[in-house]
Amino acid sequence: MKITNLGFPRIGSQRELKFALEQYWRGEISQEALVAVGNTLKARHWQWQAEAGVELIPVGDFAYYDHVLDLTATLNAIPKRHRAVDDLGNIKPIDLDTLFTAARGKGHSAQQVCAAKMTKFFNTNYHYQVAELHEGQTFSIAYEQIFDDVTQAQQLGHTPKPVLLGPVTFLHLSTAVGDFDKLSLLTPLLTVYQQILQRFAEQGVTWVQLDEPVLAAELSPQWQQAITQSYTNLADNKPAELNILLASYYGSIAHHHSLVSQLPVQGLHLDLVSDSSQLDLFSNSLTAEQVLSAGVINGRNVWAADIDLIAQQLKPLADKLADRLWLAPSCSLLHTPVSLDSETQLSASLYEQLAFAKQKLTELQDLKGLLTSNDHSTKQQIINRCQTRRSNKAANADKHVATRLTKLTPDSFQRQSCFEQRISAQHQKLNLPLLPTTTIGSFPQTAAIRGLRKRWRTGDLSSQEYQRQLEQVTKDTIERQLKIGLDVLVHGEAERNDMVEYFAQDLNGVGFTDFGWVQSYGSRCVKPPLIFGDVSREKPMTVEWACYAQSLTEKPVKGMLTGPVTILHWSFAREDIPREQIANQIALAIRDEVADLEQAGISIIQIDEPAFREGLPIKQSQWQHYFDWAVAAFKLSASVVQDNTQIHTHMCYSEFNDSITAIAAMDADVITIETSRSQMTLLDTFEYFQYPNDIGPGVYDIHSPNIPSVDDIVTLMTRAAEKIPVKQLWINPDCGLKTRTWDEVEPALKNVVEAAKVLRRQY
């Protein structure tokens, strides 16, 4: 019986990769120094896995920016605009800088290059770079990192198991440039996959993991046929000594049992955390030689597993399959923090409930021991530990929260009047011009601001002085916006470390880590809170800063909140009650804050829901149930205000075609969305759906250092006006400006304001 793993976090327990990347992008270290950091992290993580008993070490899960982008580079599918050329005009080979250009864009002049589109990876908070494929696209091996990593792992004494996104999922996640069927590219794509497998075999590899999470979706017959074609083709053309482990995760694949059980693969990985019932279904259809990788440890949450109960479930199968049963996490551990080893500030009761990536490998080791060891004393210690943890696991029930939930009525989820009446009252109160300009919320978190926060946390700066200096930063932010000429201002959020953690720190039933960082994209990491009990709010969280900022100007300043659905999705939530119940608990806490902001005189309140679509189940047949409770939670948080208080929300990196009805049902007075990287093509939805409320399509890609010109913004907004009435449009960036510098932000926003003037004259 093997312990196996599907992938490990890349960033390092102290975010070493993040800091090295940002140093490289600033020109402070060489590419060789960046690669040295990467090599050190890979070696460390491989060694940890080996020490935990992982025999086949996943290789190819490490990426300097994004593993999907790495595969796109390996397949020679990076767009020409991202490729460097030599003095003779010849395209240079793909290297790390090519990947960074594709991910981040390049340039501040007429030569600037637009980055590739970025969107959520299935229903996770990880973002990937979308491959752009053209009709007649050719593929070839053009980037060597995965082969180099195999060699590095072997030189360190490990047996590597290369991990690649499968061909069908790669095509499914890509975008077709032009009007053609992406599946027409499957045959040439498979030819290169064959070459990749041949290269692995020549390196002495015996197992390759091909990830097809798309199998968790409800695939059309054409895409199902693509799965059959792909794995039949690869089986017919791969070296005989090479074995394929087909892995799917993020959902059950039981609906594709007939399809998957007939594939000529040597191993199958199942996400049994998503659906344990599929275990019997697939185990009964295995051939006599096939391996079953049982994904029984949750790779997407941080709570310690009940491995004694898991062992009871697996014992009959372990007896039946013996060495053909592999023990694994449900998916890559990319979605969990690296290690609990640095967490010295957690309470003992909370600490014992947790397992980060490194500890999840230990759980697999203990699980194997329960299934195979004859050491009854050690086995009993493991069982006792599990039972003690369950008995000590406080429900943290709050009777007040439960009572509030039971008193909710249909009116609790509705604004007082329809949008037409509300917007009329808001126009009268706010007196904004046509095409109002605003930003999404945050302004640059400079080194000085981060330094202030660090000095305050370590006690080197008093709370009084910290408050005074943050007030000065807020005042400066307001003055900059006034000078730029924006219509609706924000206070800049200098006091906030993270849009979820900041709020969760003031909520009951929520805990925090010091180093529980998870990669969101590139060097961007988040530290999700831990929702372990019933959630409630004791006191106002944002009112003081909103009022201070509003006191500095007569222009409206938005109150900035994070919505209940996003707080839920961007936290590690308890698993003992339904997620919709947790969402309503959070919504009541946000509702209290909204009421306090309105009472304090804040006329515009933004409740951000960037993760709204992230919670969608992969199976479309399950969407409506999710939409019902997610929309209800947002409306519960917002419906307490009067008609003339304007409610905004923000969503980023979402496809709207399949969720526009639900988004409209949220009934926010104004929604701002990401559209610049798609050149407003995301608004195609509005050609057939008449969106009822106001909308701000983003015109400034804040994930790139590029500064949009006035002409660029005018062009984008003109396209938007072809699909949405001008009277409903706002002008704003794609997202918050936290990660940008003032040298980038100020000229970009000046262009936004100037473009608004041009457009107002035009319309």
From TrEMBL:
- Residues where Zn(2+) 1 binds: H650, C652, E674, C735
Per UniProt, what is one Pfam family of this protein? Meth_synt_2
Span of domain Cobalamin-independent methionine synthase MetE C-terminal/archaeal: 435-757
Q: Which residues form the Cobalamin-independent methionine synthase MetE N-terminal domain?
A: 4-320
Please give the cofactor(s) recorded in the UniProt entry for this protein.
Zn(2+)
Cofactor remark from the record: Binds 2 Zn(2+) ions per subunit. Binds 1 zinc ion per subunit.
Highest taxon of the lineage: Bacteria
Checking SUPFAM superfamilies in the record gives: UROD/MetE-like
Q: Which residues bind 5-methyltetrahydropteroyltri-L-glutamate?
A: R15, E16, L17, K18, K120, N125, R524, C525, W570, E614
| Any one Gene Ontology molecular-function term assigned to this protein's record | zinc ion binding
Q: Which GO terms describe its biological process?
A: methionine biosynthetic process; methylation
Enzyme Commission number: 2.1.1.14
- Associated pathway: Amino-acid biosynthesis; L-methionine biosynthesis via de novo pathway; L-methionine from L-homocysteine (MetE route): step 1/1
Q: Which residues form the active site?
A: H703 (proton donor)
Record field: catalytic activity:
5-methyltetrahydropteroyltri-L-glutamate + L-homocysteine = tetrahydropteroyltri-L-glutamate + L-methionine
Record bears the keyword RNA-binding: no
Ligand binding (L-methionine): I440, G441, S442, E493, D608
Its keywords, alphabetically, are:
Amino-acid biosynthesis, Metal-binding, Methionine biosynthesis, Methyltransferase, Repeat, Transferase, Zinc
What the protein does? Catalyzes the transfer of a methyl group from 5-methyltetrahydrofolate to homocysteine resulting in methionine formation.
Q: Which family would the database say this protein is a member of? A: Belongs to the vitamin-B12 independent methionine synthase family.
Specify the protein name: 5-methyltetrahydropteroyltriglutamate--homocysteine methyltransferase
Question: What species does this protein belong to?
Answer: Shewanella gaetbuli
